[in-house]
Each structure stands twice: as C-alpha cells, then as structure tokens.
Design brief:
Blueprint: H1 4-18, H2 66-73, H3 81-94, H4 98-107, H5 113-116, E1 124-125, E2 131-135, H6 140-145, H7 152-163, E3 172-175, H8 189-206, E4 210-214, H9 216-222, H10 229-232, E5 237-240, E6 245-251, H11 254-259, H12 264-278
Parallel strand pairs: 2-3, 2-4, 4-6
Antiparallel strand pairs: 1-3, 5-6
Helix pairs in contact: 3-8
The structure holds uracil.
C-alpha cells in the first residue's frame, strides 16, 4: 500500500531528477526536518562501497614513487583553491608518462568531483595519434564506462571523425575535466582550474601535431579565449605544449550539434580543415 509519505518521497525524487540531481553526496541520509540537536549526523564516509583507487576500472596500478605519492596524497580537499591548483601543478609536472599521469590523477585529492564521480575518465584512443580531441567533462555514460565520448555525443563524434577518415585508433580523446560533474552540470571555473595542469601535461605527453577543442569550455580553458565558440571556431591558433608549438582549432561540441543540427555545416568545415592539416 502506498502511503502519503511514500508518495511525497516519490514526488521529491522526481523533482530532484528533473532538476538534474542524480548523485548522492553522502551515503547516510540527513533528516533536515529533525529538530535542532536531534540531527543524526551522517556517519563519516568510509568509502567502503568504493574500491580503493588502484582497484577501480582503468587504474594503472601503483607505479608512483614516494615523492609522487606525497604530492598527490595530500588532503587537498581541505586546501584553499589556489593551493589545490598548486598541488595539481606540482603533481602533473612530476608525471613522466601518460600512465604515470593517470596514476597521479587516480590518487589526486584536490578536486571534489572525484567524490561524486564513479571513476576517473582519463582518455580513449591512440596516444600516438597526430590529432587530439579535448572535450569538456564526462557525462553519465562516460562516468559508467570510464571512457570519454561513449554516449550520444560520442557516437556523433565518432561519425564526424569517420567522415574525415579518423577513428579511435588514429585519434586521442580526453576532456579538460576528467570526472563527471553531478547532473552533467558545467564544471565550475575552480574545477577546471584544478584539472587544467593535468590536461596540459596530458597534451604535452601525448604530443599531438593538432589539438581540437570541442565546445566552448574546452576552447576557453585551453586556448585562453573569452569569445564565444561561434566566433572562435574554425580558426587555427598556435598552442604551446610546453615542449613545442602545435596547431589548435576549436569546433562545435557534438552535444551542441545534437541540439542544433543546423550548425553541423560549420563543424563540417572545421573537420575538413583538420583533414587538410593532417594531410600535410
Ligand atoms: N561531453 C564531453 O565533453 N566529454 C565527454 O566525454 C562526453 C560528453
């Protein structure tokens, strides 16, 4: 028998879902209707339901030195934002390979998104490829699978790449933020800033000839652009990887193209420019 209380709970959950809230921050519910002093404080999170990072899908194992463990293992969640960015810079700098960078990220405590995401979404494709695509952040499907661009927009990206002769064996794919923001919201500037040193190092270590920024957040973060994506897209810009200068181009995000299919003609032009650049 459904009671009024069950019904109210169902309606509340439906409201949350509608509002994009689909992640629990605490495993123990907090009764906010209980009077002052009568609150049942949530039990401290033990993470018993989550395997330790090195056992989560996609982890590369504990190949970190004592120094690396010291850098990433600091409880940076408690650090002020600038200190978290500094910790990220220090950690990213030490990683000498993509595998080490991934291992660093698996253990990095400085971005709160890791506590709501299922797992790290580091990259997919071929890190030796000449072209690297960078999106915004994983969505629900990516969070489940641990790979970038596997959902609806990923399927479209695959078709766009195929149209210029690319697939995941000839392209490397990552995101500016490697953990899914709850409810697929846009990452905050602080979250992007903390993750950026890792993404920049990922680009430097993958060392592509061509960098493609998918959508506005990726373009604004990586290409330092304040303009809207419709203005920035389709123009080649120099990008310093830290080791050398390569060519970068911004294009429209596949998720945007799913909502605005009429804009696909612009993305098509950008992809033809990428094809031409790869032919030289
Ligand atoms: N959107 C992104 O920006 N990245 C993904 O991995 C998936 C969707």
């Amino acid at each position: 028998m459904t009671t009024a209380r069950d019904q109210a709970a169902r309606e509340l959950l439906a409201f949350y879902r509608e509002a994009g809230i689909d992640a629990l921050l605490e495993e123990t519910p907090l009764d906010r209707f209980a009077g002052e002093g009568a609150t049942t404080a949530p039990a401290p999170r033990t993470d018993s339901a989550r395997p330790p990072p090195e056992r989560r899908a996609g982890a590369t194992g504990g190949a970190l030195s004592a120094r690396e463990r010291e850098v990433v293992g600091r409880p940076a969640l408690a650090l002020p934002p600038e200190a978290a960015v500094m910790a990220a810079r220090e950690a990213a700098k030490i990683a000498a390979t993509l595998a080490q960078l991934r291992a660093m990220l698996e253990r990095f405590e400085g971005c709160a998104l890791r506590t709501t995401a299922t797992q790290l979404v580091f990259a997919d494709g071929n890190p030796q490829a000449r072209v690297m695509f960078v999106g915004e952040a994983p969505g629900r499907d990516e969070d489940i699978e641990g790979l970038p661009f596997v959902g609806r927009s990923g399927k479209l990206l695959d078709r766009m790449m195929a149209a210029i002769g690319l697939d995941r064996s000839s392209a490397y794919i990552a995101n500016v933020v490697p953990w899914r923001p709850p409810g697929n919201r846009t990452p905050t500037p602080q979250e992007s800033a903390v993750c950026l040193p890792f993404t920049l190092r990922q680009i430097e270590l993958a060392d592509p000839d061509i960098l493609v920024c998918l959508g506005s957040p990726s373009t604004q973060t990586l290409l330092n652009s304040k303009d809207g994506i419709l203005k920035t897209r389709g123009r080649w810009l120099p990008f310093h990887t830290g080791t050398r200068e390569i060519r970068a181009i911004a294009t429209l995000h596949p998720a945007y193209l799913l909502r605005q299919p009429v804009q696909k003609r612009f993305a098509w032009r950008d992809f033809l420019a990428i094809k031409k650049a790869l032919a030289t």
